[in-house]
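Write out C-alpha cells for Sulfotransferase family protein.
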Amino acid sequence: MASRIVLHIGQQKSGTTYLQHGLAQRAEPAAAAGLRYPVPPTGERHVPNHHQRAFYGLLPGEFGYVSDTHAAQARTDWEWLAEQVRAEPGPVLLSSEALAFLRPSAVRRVVDELGVSDVSVLVTARDLARNLGSAWQQTVRGGTAVTFEEFLEVRSRDRDRLAEADAADAVSAPWRAYDLASLFERWGAVVGSDRVTLVTSGAGAPDVLWRRYLEATGVPGLAGLPTPVLTVQQAHLGLTWPETVLLSELNTAIDAAGIGLRNSRVLREAVVVDGFLAAGERGRKVGLPATWAQQVAEWASADVAALRQAGVRVVGDLDDLTPTSRDSVAPSGEEVARAASAAVLAAGRAKLFTRVTPVVLTPRQRAERFVRRRLLRQPPRSWAPPADGPTA
C-alpha cells in the first residue's frame, strides 16, 4: 500500500493539463526521485486525464456531465488506479480537475476509498478573471453557443446558491470549481487543513508553475525534474476573444444546419487547430466585459480574504489570485472577420464531409470484379477511410 497520497485538485484552467502531461512525460525520473505518477501501460501517454476518468468510475452520478454509461465504462479505470495505489510502497500522486466539483460527502468517499491514512491535497489555481474567461472559451469550444455575458450571468446565479448547495450536500453546484475558500474547507475537513496546499500559477512562464508544483509535493528529489515539452495540441492553448466570439456563432450555425455530433466535433477541432492556432495574428486575449469587471474583482477579493483568514499554506503568492486589469472592449467586427477567415481556410483544407463508404463484397463478387478489371485493363480504384472516423 502507498505510504502517502498526494492528491492534485486542479482548478479549471489553472495549468492542470500542462502539469499532467509533464508528469506523464517525467513519470520514470519522478518515480526514481521518490514519487510515483501512475500512467496506464497502454502507451497512451498523450492522454493526460486518465486519473479523472478513474474518478468518474468511482463516483457514478457525482458529475452531471458524465453519463451513467460513461461512468460504468470507467469503472475499470478506477480498479486499475486503485491497484496501483495498493501495489506501490512509496508516495503516489493522483491528479484530476473534476475533484474540485465534489460535494462534502463525495470528498469523504474519495479519501476513504483510497485507503491511505496519509493524504495531502495540492490545489492549483489562477486569478478568477482569467479562470472565468478560460472556462467560457472551453464551454464554447465544447459546442455551446453562449456569449461571455450570458456565461457570467449563469455563474453569478451558481455562486449565490453555493452555500445552500454545500449545506444540503447537493450534487450539482458548479461554483464549487471556482470558490477556493469553500474548496479548502471541504477537503480540509476530511484530510486536515494543515494538509491542504495552494499553488498559484501567476501570470509568468509555465515553468514557474512547474517548479512551484514540484516544491509543493514535499518530495525533495523532484526539484531537478526537467520542464515539460508539449506540442500545440498537448498544451491546449486558449482561444483569443475574437476567436471565441466567432466559434460561438459557428456553434449556432452548426445547430441550425443539423450537423451531427461527430462531424461538428471534427469541424470545431479543425477550425481551432488548423485555423486559429495556425494563424499569425490571432487577436486579443479574453478580457472581462466592462459591466462585469468590478463584480468579478469583488468576488475574487472576498475569496482571497477568506483564504488569508484561514491561514492556508501557499506556494506562490495569494496576490496572484487578484485579477489584473485587461482590455474590456469586446472584439470589433473586423477582428471577428479575421478569425472567420482562418476558420474558413481550415474547414476548406480539411475536406471534412467527403465520405467514401467501402462496399463489402463476397468472395465470389471479388473474384468476378478481379476478372472483369483484368479484361478491361482497369486498375482498381483506391479507397480512403471516412474523414470522420470513429471517435474515442
